[in-house]
Design brief:
Blueprint (H helix, E strand, L loop, with lengths): L19 H19 L11 E6 L5 H12 L3 E6 L11 H11 L2 E5 L3 H10 L4 E3 L7 H15 L6 E5 L5 H13 L2 E5 L16 E4 L11 E4 L11 H7 L7 H4 L7 E4 L11 H4 L6 H20 L2
Parallel strand pairs: 1-2, 1-3, 3-4, 5-6, 5-8, 6-7, 8-9
Bound molecules: phosphoric acid mono(formamide)ester and norvaline (NVA).
Length: about 300
């Protein structure tokens, strides 16, 4: 029997693993948990529960927000990384997943390919959360949408412009989020860095190439690094390909006057975004980073105790 008992386990590998209603309920709970924390009344809903955090790539926000989330709800976070575990010496991923599941009531896994993520999730007997893979970053989108809902009241019908690497995990999770949460998405990227066509819902998403028109009329402008983790060898080629796609004050002047800026962080000031925009009054990035913790709490409750 797994640490999670005999219940059928449920994973969160992509946003659409939850229904639209479940996602909205999760975000409502995240906002409630944020309020309770401000009042120093965080509930102890994870008392006696252990959550493993397994990283094959670097992390600051994901690791710390989940550690804080688990601790504040009364549970125990357990960190595992490739360097300090037998994963570095080639222990099969599926064996690691099986063993970790015997100790932990849920497991967050940050990895490379979708295949690795699914190998891990299929072998695990506790719920697995995608902590970022090459093709998706669903937990970041929970925080991003929570941030927009708190700022605007609702995201439905808003125009979100994602500028940069349209083939990245963040762009691809924004594609999923647009359908589920009901906002319009404009993806502005060079042709060679487009998302897979099958992931684009033409009813709500437009793909555009001209960065000069990227932010026109947008409510939200989002960007992310041009070189994601694992793509370091492509830095020079990517710097050339994305020239002109920097989110800067000139671009922001074409957005709605009340437009806001998101970036999942870490950011490269002077590349995908200028310092004045990232650190300026339209930027919500610090709230967005904080909301990683509130949404992590709501997600863990939904997977472990619901
Ligand atoms: N945004 C995000 O996932 O940050 P980390 O890589 O620091 O976890
Ligand atoms: N696209 C980035 C996101 C980092 C949080 C990466 O995968 O490196």
């Amino acid at each position: 029997m797994s640490a999670s008992g005999t219940k059928t386990k449920r994973d969160f590998l992509k946003l659409s693993d939850f229904s639209r209603d479940e996602l909205f309920r999760l975000l409502d709970r995240a906002t409630e948990l944020a309020k309770l924390r401000r009042e120093d009344r965080s509930p102890r809903t994870l008392t006696g529960k252990t959550v493993a955090l397994v990283f094959e790539k670097a992390s600051t926000r994901t690791r710390l927000s989940f550690e804080a989330a688990v601790s504040e709800l009364g549970g125990h976070p357990m960190n595992v990384d490739t360097q300090t575990s037998q994963m570095s010496r080639g222990e099969p991923l599926a064996d690691t997943a099986r063993v970790v599941s015997r100790y932990a009531h849920a497991v967050l896994f940050r990895t490379f390919s979708s295949e690795r993520l699914h190998t891990f999730a299929n072998a695990a007997t506790s719920p697995v959360i995608n902590g970022l893979s090459d093709d998706a970053h669903p937990i970041q989108l929970l925080a991003d949408v929570q941030t927009l809902r708190e700022h605007f009241g609702s995201v439905e019908g808003r125009l979100v412009s994602f500028v940069g690497d349209g083939s990245s995990n963040m762009a691809r999770s924004f594609l999923e989020a647009a359908s589920l949460f009901g906002f319009k998405l404009r993806l502005v990227c060079p042709e060679a860095f487009s998302p897979p066509a099958a992931e684009v819902d033409a009813a709500i998403t437009t793909i555009e190439r001209d960065p000069k028109a990227a932010a026109r009329g947008a409510d939200v402008v989002v960007t992310d690094v041009w070189t994601s983790m694992g793509q370091e060898k492509e830095v020079a080629e990517r710097l050339r390909a994305f020239a002109g796609f920097t989110v800067d004050a000139t671009m922001m002047r074409t957005a709605k006057p009340e437009a806001v800026v998101l970036h999942c962080l870490p950011a490269h000031r002077g590349e995908e975004i200028t310092a004045d925009v990232l650190d300026g009054p339209q930027s919500l990035v610090w709230d967005e980073a904080e909301n990683r913790m509130h949404t992590a709490k709501a997600l863990l409750e939904a997977l472990i105790i619901a």
